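Researcher: Structure for this, please.
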Amino acid sequence: MAAEDNKAIVQRFYDEVINQRRFDVLDDLLAPHFRGFQLPHRNQSSSRPRFREILQEILSAFPDYHETIEDWIVAEDKIVTRWTFRGTHTGSPYFGVPATGRPVIGTGIDIFRLENGKLIEHWAEVDLFGIMSQLGKDPS
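Model: Predicted structure, token format:
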């Protein structure tokens, strides 16, 4: 697929899955052999079902979570985004921290790899230190 077609698929991920909470769209976007590699300090990868659970956990902790894409790098089968999220920690615990009611601004970078119009890999670098600091938790 053309790079712009792949960008449209990733845009759909942010618009529909992240910002509209339409998790059913993941069935259309993720390849059966999808692997997500998020938060490298956990040294784990995630399958399609686990990736969905991770997203639901994050969005449950911050019910008003909204991501804005600040930059795009589009290169054939790889799409890189730099994003900012804003949300209020009024939902479920986040990394063991009970809801604080605090507003949070976080940043991150996602790298997606696509094949035949489907997301097959996702890498995320998230400023977890900054997020946890805003929640009043010592991130060390």
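Researcher: Any notable elements?
Model: Residues 88 and 103 are 4 Å apart (CA to CA). The chain has four helices and five strands.
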